[in-house]
Amino acid sequence: MFQFQIRNSQSAHSFLKDRFSVDQEEFWVLALGSELQVLDCKMLFRGTVHSCPVHPRDVIRFVAGANATSFMIAHNHPEGQALPSRSDLAVTRQLWKVGGLIEIPLTDHLILGKEGYCSLADRGFFLKMSLKGAV
Fold this sequence. Notes:
By secondary structure, the chain is of the alpha+beta class. The chain is 31% helix and 26% strand. The protein has helices at 9-16, 56-65, 86-101, 125-132, and strands at residues 26-32, 38-46, 70-76, 106-113, 116-119. It has a five-stranded mixed sheet, with helices on both faces.
């Protein structure tokens, strides 16, 4: 177990920023406990310089196996800005739905770029999905 608590997107960024490759996209998952402590953290997928395939079943297997009460996801854009692409939003939406169905909610998706990061939770993405009744 990690001795780290995720209080907000800034603390998540601080925890993750040195773990990512600078040459390839990587997709990381943080399994969180009831007090937002990091139970486990793992890079589940590695791609190329501009894409990374993600399989929801592997993400859910990881968070369920860690006995998580919630989870966060993060990936990097090695060559660019920390802005979400359409496929980033689609993966987030899919994992948010599945997490809601199995009662292990997705709490944030961080995208790390060369000059910083973007938190979809901070941008209101999950609130908008909740208001639409997406689950």
